[in-house]
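agent: user wants the structure for Lipoprotein from Pseudomonas kuykendallii. delegating to structure tool.
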Amino acid sequence: MRNLAVFLMLPLLHACAAALPKPDPNLAWVDVRAVPVGDISADRLDGKRLDDARYFQVGPGAHELDVRYQYEVNRGGGVDSSGPSQVTCYLRVRYDGFIPGQRYRLEARPLVLKAQGWLYGEGREPLASAKLLRCGPY
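agent: tool returned. relaying C-alpha coordinates verbatim.
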Protein backbone atom coordinates (compact mmCIF):
# COMPACT_ATOMS: atom_id res chain seq x y z
CA MET A 1 0.00 0.00 0.00
CA ARG A 2 2.84 2.39 0.84
CA ASN A 3 4.43 1.73 -2.56
CA LEU A 4 1.17 2.72 -4.24
CA ALA A 5 1.10 6.02 -2.31
CA VAL A 6 4.69 6.80 -3.31
CA PHE A 7 3.92 5.94 -6.93
CA LEU A 8 0.92 8.27 -6.95
CA MET A 9 2.96 11.13 -5.41
CA LEU A 10 5.73 11.04 -8.04
CA PRO A 11 3.91 13.17 -10.65
CA LEU A 12 3.19 15.81 -8.00
CA LEU A 13 6.82 15.94 -6.92
CA HIS A 14 7.94 16.25 -10.53
CA ALA A 15 5.58 19.19 -11.11
CA CYS A 16 7.00 21.01 -8.09
CA ALA A 17 10.57 20.46 -9.25
CA ALA A 18 9.98 21.41 -12.89
CA ALA A 19 12.20 24.16 -14.20
CA LEU A 20 10.71 27.51 -15.07
CA PRO A 21 10.26 28.14 -18.79
CA LYS A 22 12.49 30.60 -20.61
CA PRO A 23 10.99 34.10 -20.49
CA ASP A 24 9.36 35.22 -23.73
CA PRO A 25 11.20 38.40 -24.85
CA ASN A 26 7.89 39.78 -26.18
CA LEU A 27 6.35 39.64 -22.71
CA ALA A 28 7.18 41.03 -19.27
CA TRP A 29 8.09 38.48 -16.60
CA VAL A 30 6.78 38.86 -13.04
CA ASP A 31 8.32 36.78 -10.24
CA VAL A 32 6.24 36.28 -7.10
CA ARG A 33 7.97 36.23 -3.70
CA ALA A 34 6.92 35.95 -0.06
CA VAL A 35 9.09 38.15 2.17
CA PRO A 36 10.28 37.17 4.77
CA VAL A 37 8.11 34.06 5.20
CA GLY A 38 5.10 32.32 3.75
CA ASP A 39 3.95 30.84 0.48
CA ILE A 40 2.81 32.95 -2.45
CA SER A 41 1.30 31.87 -5.72
CA ALA A 42 0.21 33.64 -8.87
CA ASP A 43 -3.55 33.11 -8.99
CA ARG A 44 -5.14 35.19 -11.76
CA LEU A 45 -4.04 37.41 -14.61
CA ASP A 46 -6.69 39.88 -15.77
CA GLY A 47 -9.36 37.77 -14.07
CA LYS A 48 -8.31 34.46 -15.67
CA ARG A 49 -6.89 31.60 -13.62
CA LEU A 50 -3.27 30.67 -14.35
CA ASP A 51 -1.84 27.23 -15.12
CA ASP A 52 1.49 27.86 -13.36
CA ALA A 53 1.40 29.64 -9.98
CA ARG A 54 5.14 30.42 -9.87
CA TYR A 55 5.17 33.51 -12.13
CA PHE A 56 3.25 35.80 -14.50
CA GLN A 57 4.12 36.61 -18.12
CA VAL A 58 2.21 39.63 -19.38
CA GLY A 59 2.00 41.63 -22.57
CA PRO A 60 2.84 45.33 -22.70
CA GLY A 61 0.55 47.84 -21.03
CA ALA A 62 -1.99 47.51 -18.23
CA HIS A 63 -2.67 44.31 -16.31
CA GLU A 64 -4.27 43.13 -13.08
CA LEU A 65 -2.37 40.47 -11.11
CA ASP A 66 -3.94 38.48 -8.26
CA VAL A 67 -1.85 36.45 -5.82
CA ARG A 68 -2.66 34.08 -2.98
CA TYR A 69 -0.41 34.52 0.05
CA GLN A 70 -0.34 32.15 3.05
CA TYR A 71 1.58 32.48 6.30
CA GLU A 72 1.44 31.24 9.88
CA VAL A 73 0.61 33.36 12.91
CA ASN A 74 1.18 32.43 16.51
CA ARG A 75 -1.94 33.08 18.54
CA GLY A 76 0.02 33.49 21.77
CA GLY A 77 0.08 31.44 24.94
CA GLY A 78 -3.37 32.19 26.35
CA VAL A 79 -5.86 29.62 27.61
CA ASP A 80 -7.85 29.64 24.36
CA SER A 81 -4.75 29.47 22.19
CA SER A 82 -4.46 26.52 19.87
CA GLY A 83 -0.94 27.34 18.69
CA PRO A 84 0.03 28.59 15.24
CA SER A 85 -2.64 28.91 12.58
CA GLN A 86 -2.51 29.65 8.89
CA VAL A 87 -3.80 32.87 7.35
CA THR A 88 -4.57 33.10 3.63
CA CYS A 89 -4.77 36.49 1.93
CA TYR A 90 -5.67 37.47 -1.60
CA LEU A 91 -3.96 40.56 -3.03
CA ARG A 92 -4.43 42.43 -6.30
CA VAL A 93 -1.95 44.67 -8.12
CA ARG A 94 -2.89 46.87 -11.06
CA TYR A 95 -0.11 48.36 -13.13
CA ASP A 96 -0.35 50.20 -16.45
CA GLY A 97 3.27 50.22 -17.62
CA PHE A 98 4.48 46.66 -18.22
CA ILE A 99 7.30 46.62 -20.79
CA PRO A 100 8.20 43.54 -22.86
CA GLY A 101 11.52 41.96 -21.91
CA GLN A 102 11.54 43.57 -18.45
CA ARG A 103 11.55 41.58 -15.19
CA TYR A 104 9.31 42.59 -12.31
CA ARG A 105 8.85 41.26 -8.81
CA LEU A 106 5.59 41.05 -6.85
CA GLU A 107 6.28 40.67 -3.12
CA ALA A 108 3.94 40.05 -0.20
CA ARG A 109 4.59 40.17 3.52
CA PRO A 110 2.47 39.54 6.62
CA LEU A 111 0.98 42.39 8.62
CA VAL A 112 -0.57 40.96 11.82
CA LEU A 113 -3.64 39.13 10.40
CA LYS A 114 -3.49 40.88 7.02
CA ALA A 115 -0.90 41.29 4.30
CA GLN A 116 0.84 43.94 2.23
CA GLY A 117 2.18 43.67 -1.28
CA TRP A 118 4.18 45.69 -3.81
CA LEU A 119 5.22 45.42 -7.42
CA TYR A 120 8.86 46.32 -8.05
CA GLY A 121 10.73 47.06 -11.27
CA GLU A 122 14.10 45.67 -12.31
CA GLY A 123 15.96 48.26 -10.25
CA ARG A 124 13.89 47.42 -7.12
CA GLU A 125 11.94 50.67 -7.50
CA PRO A 126 8.36 50.36 -6.17
CA LEU A 127 5.86 50.67 -9.02
CA ALA A 128 2.50 49.81 -7.40
CA SER A 129 1.09 48.70 -4.09
CA ALA A 130 -1.29 45.79 -3.78
CA LYS A 131 -4.90 46.07 -2.70
CA LEU A 132 -5.88 43.59 0.00
CA LEU A 133 -8.97 41.71 -1.24
CA ARG A 134 -9.55 39.45 1.78
CA CYS A 135 -7.80 37.45 4.48
CA GLY A 136 -8.93 34.60 6.63
CA PRO A 137 -8.26 31.09 7.87
CA TYR A 138 -9.08 29.44 4.52
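agent: one observation worth passing along. The beta strands are 28-34, 39-45, 48-49, 55-58, 61-74, 84-98, 103-111, 114-120, 126-129, 131-136.
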